[in-house]
Design a protein that fits this description.
30% strand; 4 helices; two-stranded antiparallel ribbon; globular; Aminopeptidase; alpha+beta; 5-stranded mixed sheet
Length: 141
């Protein structure tokens, strides 16, 4: 399968159906999505997107993956790994030094994959509410 990754030009074209695969509610997505660069993966220019990721610039050195999702019917086919490669390519070409993945501590599947990408745990934040949240990882390249 050929995969084309394109930046979403209009915030009116955001693929909320795909974004909801990685976030629980539209409200949660809307907290970051309008300040993020959103990319959609598809087979050709005319086709519907089957995967998405959202990148948020923290500063000139750090970019955060706020959302990354693949359509359920296409999961476990290496598309997520391909998206990570694309994110790393985008980060390098934009001169970012670190990539952060923010995810709740309950996302054990995401945390478990950190080692597969040769990344390391960066920090664990404990908000005032007392709920522990795993903050992210940085690229080891």
């Amino acid at each position: 399968m050929q995969i084309i990754v394109r930046k979403v030009d209009s915030k009116q074209d955001l693929p909320f159906g795909l974004l909801l695969l990685a976030d629980e509610t539209i409200e949660a997505i809307e907290k970051y999505i309008y300040d993020s660069d959103v990319y959609v993966a598809k087979e050709c220019e005319e086709s519907e997107g089957f995967a998405v990721f959202a990148l948020y610039k923290i500063d000139n050195s750090y970019i955060e993956i706020k959302n990354i999702a693949v359509a359920e019917s296409l999961q476990n086919n290496g598309i997520g790994s391909f998206l990570i490669s694309e994110i790393k390519r985008i980060a390098r070409s934009s001169k970012y030094e670190n990539i952060i993945v923010g995810t709740p501590d309950g996302a054990s599947g995401v945390i478990g994959r950190v080692g597969a990408f040769n990344w390391m745990v960066w920090s664990i934040d404990v908000p005032v509410s007392g709920t522990e949240t795993w903050r992210g990882a940085t690229a080891d390249e």
